[in-house]
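Q: I'm building a small set of examples for a reading group on sequence design. Run inverse folding on the following structure and report the sequence directly after it, with nothing in between.
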């Protein structure tokens, strides 16, 4: 088996055609050689120095990530540049890197589906369509305060930020993995009958907009997307008989913490 066997399958399972236009040219294989025999695989949220070291320790020569390793143009390949020096390390250790970003967000069993399942949403809606990030579903009627507690437990969080009346009742929820804090996302959630939107990276003017509409927001860490790596790894393990050869990274690449 070669690396291309894995990446070709992923190109079919999570096609780039599902991705947002902002991801054009940033997905798929970014470093390495997909004709190499496959050793082990590490699935991670990001490529960082610690993740690369983890891959080396596990004998992995393929890192599959959610966030693209090369997202912005590279203007140099200097060894003393912390970012580009990782390319040296990857190539020196013959490690390939393959990324799926917004296409994994919207794909069937991707980020949106995984997070909505973890929350226990029922009557789920949201199809695997290009740039269709929002997933919606119902919950037993509960206060915003109770929902916040449920979200923290489901996503293993110490805290969240929120907009809304803690005593107000929520019955239908929208969720967008990653930075879904936009006016468009709020309006789409409202149009689908949601009482609350759960997402990441909510700016002040977005929070003010939600408050003006008396619409509840719960802001979670961007890193909750990591939960989608588990079903992805399980699918690859079953499909390619990779027991004890595919690993989900144990490195927390989200440096933001809540006290």
């Amino acid at each position: 088996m070669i690396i291309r066997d894995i990446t070709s399958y992923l190109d079919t399972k999570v096609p780039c055609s599902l991705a947002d236009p902002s991801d054009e040219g940033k997905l798929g294989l970014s470093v390495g050689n997909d004709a190499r025999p496959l050793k082990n695989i590490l699935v991670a949220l990001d490529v960082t120095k610690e993740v690369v070291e983890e891959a080396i320790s596990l004998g992995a020569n393929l890192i599959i990530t959610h966030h693209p390793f090369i997202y912005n143009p590279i203007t140099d390949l200097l060894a003393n540049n912390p970012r580009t020096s990782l390319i040296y390390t990857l190539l020196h250790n013959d490690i390939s890197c393959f990324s799926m970003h917004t296409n994994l967000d919207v794909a069937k069993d991707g980020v949106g589906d995984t997070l909505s399942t973890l929350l226990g949403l029922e009557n789920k809606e949201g199809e695997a369509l290009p740039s269709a990030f929002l997933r919606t579903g119902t919950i037993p009627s509960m206060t915003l305060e109770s929902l916040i507690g449920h979200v923290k437990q489901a996503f293993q969080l110490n805290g969240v930020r929120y907009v809304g009346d803690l005593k107000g009742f929520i019955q239908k929820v929208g969720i967008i993995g990653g930075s879904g804090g936009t006016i468009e996302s709020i309006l789409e959630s409202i149009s689908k009958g949601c009482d609350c939107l759960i997402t990441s990276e909510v700016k002040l003017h977005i929070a003010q907009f939600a408050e003006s509409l008396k619409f509840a927001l719960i802001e979670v860490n961007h890193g909750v997307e990591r939960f989608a790596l588990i079903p992805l790894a399980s699918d690859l393990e079953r499909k390619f008989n990779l027991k004890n050869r595919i690993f989900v990274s144990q490195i927390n690449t989200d440096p933001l913490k809540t006290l």
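The domain at 108-222 is CATH 3.40.1390.30 (Udp-n-acetylmuramoylalanyl-d-glutamate--2,6- Diaminopimelate Ligase; Chain: A, domain 1).
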